[in-house]
Amino acid sequence: MPRSSSASTTPSVSSASSKDWKSVNGSRSSTRLTFAVLATGAGVFSMLQSLIAPALPTVQHALHTSQSTATWVMTAYLLSASVFTPILGRVGDLIGKKRTLVAVLVAVLAGCLLAALAPTIGVLIVARVVQGVGGALFPLSFGIIRDEFAPAQVSGRISSLSAVIAAGGGVGIVAAGPIVTVLDYRWLFWIPVVIVAAAALIAVRYVPESPRRAEGRVGWLGAALLSGWLVALLLPLSQAGTWGWGSARTLGLFAVAVLLFAVWLVTEARARNPLIDLRVMRLPAVWTTNLAALLFGAGMYAIWSFLPGFVQTPSSAGYGFGASVTASGLLMLPMLVSMFASGVLSGRLEPRVGAKALLTTGAALGAVALGFLALWHDRQWQIAVVSGIFGLGIGLAFASMANLIVGSVPAAQTGAATGMNANIRTIGGSIGAAVTTVLVTGRLQPSGLPYDSGYTHGFALLALLCLGAALAALLVPVRRPAAPAPHPAPDTAPVRVR
Questions:
Q1: Is residue 34 a contact partner of residue 208, using CB atoms and an 8 Å limit?
Q2: pLDDT tens column, 253-275
Q3: pTM
Q4: SS3 per residue for the chain
Q5: Any idea what the Cα angle at residue 159 is, between residues 158 and 161, rounded to 5°?
Q6: Residues 5-29: what's their mean pLDDT?
Q7: Given pLDDT bands bounded at 50, 70 and 90, which one contains residue 460?
Q8: Per-residue pLDDT at 3 exceeds 60
Q9: Which of 234, 225, 214 is nearest to 269 (CA)?
Q10: How far is CA 415 from CA 8, 84, 277, 421, in A?
Q11: What's the mean pLDDT in 116-125?
């Protein structure tokens, strides 16, 4: 059955390069406002991913719930984002990215408002599910940049947005402690309410609607199957520490995930309007980038989860520094600064050295940082150095992955393809966190604290995963710039006189 394709029905980015972009896409100030809206929305969503994690004990106490129930505040957000990111990315490709962007911002606003007012843990979990809709901000933002900015600006803007996304997670870790200490955990949601409301209003006024649309419709069967296997995979990965790796629930959900994944592949391959075009996923630049994203995501998200806990461990355990939530966040500050700086810098480096080289370098820096951490973690300055090096790697890797995907897929598949890349990175993070949990908590001291060797083995494994990401990045084919169209030769034929 023929599938819809943007290749023949939509103008390519390069074909529009000869136009006057300033007149076609609005004034320069308008594009700056567009980018500001995109960066604000994506940055807030990224911050919400990590902002609540350091405050979970406070939430547990304030809402009179158990630790296992409180972890659903994180799990619900993860599952919701994994489902909505690729689906709404595809919806944006079909019905218009601005329209979808505004709807997603309103959903995030409603979720934050509900969370700030939540009287019970159940309401807070529902609010986090609503906030998870904001995962679609990533693919929608990349698609809008591709549509609305001049071709020469696309790579730099994607790199800058990727830097904001990466830094947002760091801001959450650093800012959570001071906000909770000075104000209250509910301000973790009140502050985003104000920011997202302003972003939504500006988006309505200044973000232009997409000039490109994909043909077809949303494949709801494919969407349901995709949601099913993602939930069946991520739920046991996030809850296996509580349920047990050998429990019937854990093993049963893994089996369901494998089955639904196989059915999803067959369904998408045969669909007239697939949610995710598997031909695009099989492109060499796409699958190799996604493989690197899976492995690097495992190292990145696991280190965000476990390094603060390591720093906060009392020194009586034989390691750790007994740091407060605020102090542990400050030790992560070098990561925040370096990841933003390297992300922005990568936009200038990418035209010179290529996104492949930047992705390889970023993953290799992550491996070096984690290897250093596995061997030396007795002084706080060592943690700060590791944090800074790892931040450099995150900034380079985030920006280059996005640029590789956007530059390799048809314009009408941008949302779905970048959404799947973000999802694959999240899946990698869940796998890395789950495996590291087993290593860290598999053997405990009489005090109930992990042994130092658990962290050491965990950091070493994460270093190997990042090294694997660097090797996967070497498989990414080099994207050569398209040759300029030849100018027609001047007509030198002799003029016939009739």
A1: yes
A2: 999 999 999 999 899 888 877 77
A3: 0.76
A4: CCCCCCCCCCCCCHHHCCCCHHHHCCCHHHHHHHHHHHHHHHHHHHHHHHHCHHHHHHHHHHCCCCHHHHCHHHHHHHHHHHHHHHHHHHHHHHHCHHHHHHHHHHHHHHHHHHHHHCCCHHHHHHHHHHHHHHHHHHHHHHHHHHHHCCHHHHHHHHHHHHHHHHHHHHHHHHHHHHHHHHCCCCHHHHHHHHHHHHHHHHHHHHCCCCCCCCCCCCCHHHHHHHHHHHHHHHHHHHHHHHHCCCCHHHHHHHHHHHHHHHHHHHHHHHCCCCCCCHHHHCCHHHHHHHHHHHHHHHHHHHHHHHHHHHHHCCHHHCCCCCCCHHHHHHHCHHHHHHHHHHHHHHHHHHHHHCHHHHHHHHHHHHHHHHHHHHHCCCCHHHHHHHHHHHHHHHHHHHHHHHHHHHCCCCHHHHHHHHHHHHHHHHHHHHHHHHHHHHHHHCCECCCCCECHHHHHHHHHHHHHHHHHHHHHHHCCCCCCCCCCCCCCCCCCCCCCCC
A5: 65
A6: 42
A7: very high
A8: no
A9: 225
A10: 18, 12, 12, 10
A11: 91
What's the confidence (pLDDT) of residue 214?
64
Question: How high is the pLDDT of residue 80?
Answer: 85
Cα dist. 161→155, 165, 371, 403 in Å? 10, 6, 29, 11
The pair of structure tokens assigned to 376 is 């030396």
Whether the predicted pLDDT of 292 surpasses 90: yes
Which among 192, 199, 189, 197 is positioned nearest to 140, based on CA atoms?
199
- For the cut 70, the answer to whether the pLDDT of residue 87 exceeds it is yes
**What pLDDT is stored for residue 254 in this prediction?**
92
Compute the distance between CA of residue 175 and CA of residue 112 in angstroms, rounded to an integer. Answer: 17
